[in-house]
From TrEMBL, chains A, B:
EC number from the UniProt entry: 1.3.3.3
Family note: Belongs to the aerobic coproporphyrinogen-III oxidase family.
Subunit record text: Homodimer.
Enzyme class: oxidoreductase
UniProt keyword annotations, A-Z: Heme biosynthesis, Oxidoreductase, Porphyrin biosynthesis
Source organism of the structure: Pieris macdunnoughi
Keyword Oxidoreductase: yes
UniProt pathway: Porphyrin-containing compound metabolism; protoporphyrin-IX biosynthesis; protoporphyrinogen-IX from coproporphyrinogen-III (O2 route): step 1/1
A Pfam entry, by short name: Coprogen_oxidas
CC terms in the record's Gene Ontology section: cytoplasm
Organism domain of life: Eukaryota
Name of the protein in question: coproporphyrinogen oxidase
Length: 391, 391
């Protein structure tokens, strides 16, 4: 597995490289080191203990894993371990990529927390930076027992569960990035793995998604974003992107306003096909697509000019973001209603500032109005792209 | 009934007078006119049509009643009519009292709206004033049919309902006032009347409450506020204040944070005792206590000095207000999930600006910390007062 991890790190880094973001010498050395150690680790093969420790060190995670390293070493092929290592890596890569866009002194605050019942998490927040007004990247690895009704809430459809209190395991990474410049969109992503044990054995499934919330519509950005996600999906199942794009538009709806919160992306739940390893590989590709889908947009727009009016509009749209998260988002609700919830980690998704004006309505033929049109009627971004290409 | 209405208007105005707020000549003339017309109306007795029109005119409501005047005239003794006239009057008196504290140019925007299924409302919002950052005072008078599950949500306990789609009527006034100066507390109140018809006949009940959310704790203010509410309750049932004060502390809890949203007040639901008229009189007293409980606090603190730090704290606490309203408040949820909801009227309760900082914790021995202590452990404000008096 170590070889696979090393290869995957390398792939991500080259992916990132392709988007010309992380090209300084330090990263190249890190990249080379990962390949080197991956190769050595593969050669050593059975010397698991030494190998795992080295990989964990080299990964440069934001904090120590939640599960003790000795346990991770012993269970390298267990999906729980694979998922924990994936989310640790995704968290660290994404935090580093965001810090690269910031002023030097703006760094993520790292809080590693544990839960009495089992497990814990690592919450990384960068607040009040020049580029990012509030950026939160959280992982959690929790286990314990839940009543079937609560477990049921964890999945959209799914089979029913049998039993009283069911042992469960959940590991996920989740991030919301609210930039300061209104020309830079907000991104959210979340990738998660569940295991629940009932009388009939262990049920497992993956869920997740990545979606974009611009304040000003830039069609090129939206197409770039969707295209990157489509590439990530296409390598696994050609039907995934279209299905999960629609699911995303449906899910991120502010029902009472009849509008989406952004230009969408992908969203899925209950993925347990075609087998555990392939499902994990798919989720891995999606999670690895976050940086190339988003960081180029930050780089492109972080120094765009804007004024008081654009800032006010951004704050109003952030109010809508709050409405979605607190009223409709299943993850937030599930989190807050879970006993012993670490609410600060759940609510790190809320913007630093938000605004609500009574009866605010953008005037026709303004950029604000153009955004609203897309939020009310989601577009099929990539068909537009194809039509343009053939035109 | 017209005589009773006139007397009630007079009582409120003298109450208000007692607090030395509305003493200009215009109001005195208005007051005198109300008494005069009330007396004349009583003498005329049967000349209902003329009398009602005059009273409606004199009331100086924010807009025309939702129910056609001709229907109100014919149903003067119906509780639905009594309630509609009460909430119209409370809305108008409260809006005028708030405008008196504002700069001359700051006036309420008045939106009268109707609902396809039946009824409508009048939403009054004053936004971005010098004294009030956002003040919303809304009435709604709606009727139609609801599934029993939805009706059940309208009351906390209550009997079960029998039938498929049940005809219902709901009339209420609701207000949230967010002042600009952090030394002035936010107030919320809501008084409502429901009727639901099932196989067994018509069930009716009242609900409501008034609660205060300070940003900086002023014990004298909290005592004044609670004392005013206690007086309003005591005239009807000596047990009400203590019960409804506790209910308020329990209801306005931000569960995931283990804190109340403010220093409480009173809250009740399902009041259908001892009879309809007495229950209405009780609700009337509560609604009439809003101005004397709150306006003196506005007058006292609206010009208090404050700085950037106090404003930031106020914005953080407004974030908590949003959390309560969007996650826990039954009225907001019931409203937003009702088909054809006028969401702008429901969400006028949200502040103009709010803020969320990750892991914000006031330092010990600061005024912010003192507030938090009271929010975590509600005080029995009037026992303190009694202890002081006997000391």
């Amino acid at each position: 597995m170590s070889f696979k991890i090393a290869i995957r790190s390398f792939k991500t880094l080259t992916y990132v490289e392709g988007y010309k973001k992380l090209r300084d010498r330090h990263i190249k050395m890190y990249c080379a080191a990962v390949i080197g150690v991956g190769y050595m680790a593969y050669k050593q093969h059975k010397a698991n203990k030494v190998e795992m420790k080295e990989i964990l060190q080299l990964k440069n995670y934001m904090a120590d894993p939640i599960t003790p390293i000795s346990h991770l070493e012993k269970t390298q092929d267990d999906m729980k371990t694979q998922m924990e290592l994936l989310i640790m890596r995704i968290q660290s890569e994404f935090c580093r990529a965001l810090e690269k866009e910031e002023d030097e002194e703006a760094k993520f605050q790292v809080d590693r927390w544990t839960r009495r019942e089992g497990g814990g998490g690592i919450t990384c927040v960068l607040q009040d930076g020049r580029v990012f007004e509030k950026a939160g990247v959280n992982i959690s690895v929790v286990s314990g027992k839940l009543p079937p009704a609560a477990v049921q809430q964890m999945r959209t459809r799914g089979k029913s569960f049998d039993g009283q209190e069911l042992p469960f395991f959940a590991a996920g990474v989740s991030a919301v990035i609210h930039p300061r410049n209104p020309m830079v969109p907000t991104i959210h992503f979340n990738y998660r793995y569940f295991e629940v044990q009932d009388k009939n054995g262990v049920q497992w499934w993956f869920g997740g998604g990545t979606d974009l919330t611009p304040y000003y519509l830039n069609e090129e950005d939206a197409v770039h974003f969707h295209l990157t996600l489509k590439h990530a999906c296409d390598g696994h199942d050609k039907s995934y992107y279209a299905r999960f794009k629609k699911w995303c538009d449906d899910y991120f709806t502010i029902t009472h306003r009849g509008e989406r919160r952004g230009v969408g992306g992908i969203f899925f739940d209950d993925v347990d096909q075609p087998n555990q390893q392939s499902a994990f590989d798919f989720v891995t590709s999606c999670a690895e697509a976050v940086i190339p889908s988003y960081i180029p947009l930050v780089q492109k727009h972080k120094d765009d000019p804007y004024g008081y009016y654009e800032r006010q509009w951004q704050l109003l749209r952030r109010g809508r973001y709050v409405e979605f998260n607190l009223i409709y988002d299943r993850g937030t609700k599930f989190g807050l209603f879970t006993p012993e919830a670490r609410y600060e980690s759940i609510l790190m998704s809320l913007p630093l500032n938000a605004k609500w004006e009574y009866m605010h309505e953008p005037k026709p033929n303004t950029p604000e109005h153009s955004l609203m049109k897309v939020l009310k009627e989601p577009r099929d971004w990539l068909q537009i792209e194809q039509a343009r290409a053939t035109a």
